[in-house]
Amino acid sequence: MFKNKLFNMSLIIIISIALLVVVAFFLYQYTFWNVKSVQGNQVKAPSIDEIVPLTVKVPKISTNLGDSTVIVLEMTLQMDNKDAKVEAEKRMFQIQDKVNLLLKNQTAKSFASEEKINQFKVELISRLNKILLEGKVVHVDITQIFLQ
Questions:
Q1: Which domain does 3 fall in, by range?
Q2: Bridge partners, residue 62, by sequence
Q3: Do 109 and 84 lie in a common domain?
Q4: pLDDT in tens, the chain (148 residues)
Q5: I need a surface site. Which of 44, 59, 67, 71 has the fewest CB within 10 A?
Q6: Cα angle for residues 124, 59, 118 (degrees, 5° grid)
């Protein structure tokens, strides 16, 4: 480009640093955008009258965990819209399959504390949202859990 090698190297370094700054800025904005929007707009929790029409009851599931412990589990799924509720009711056999497969990978220790139960719920929500097309699962409430 230019005949002076020192000038070429310094120009390349300056351009590289400028590109890194731009990329870092956009990554920062992308990463912390949701945090700022949630802090700015305090989200109001939905009332029970808004939640009940969007819930789907999963029938009682009795199965063995990975360590041969028997679990009896009953839960409700809170959906994000009415179309998702209708779809979840139609896909109940798939939902039960996903729950059973997830339970087969768990042990009795996986349900020993509230934190571990919450991890189970997060994983279950993730798996269920992969099969739903019309909406998504927002929250899982375990209404009965029995380990033996």
A1: 1-43
A2: 72
A3: yes
A4: 567 888 889 999 999 999 999 999 888 887 776 655 555 556 678 788 888 999 999 999 999 988 888 999 999 999 999 999 999 999 999 999 999 999 998 888 888 889 989 999 999 999 999 999 988 999 999 999 998 8
A5: 44
A6: 30
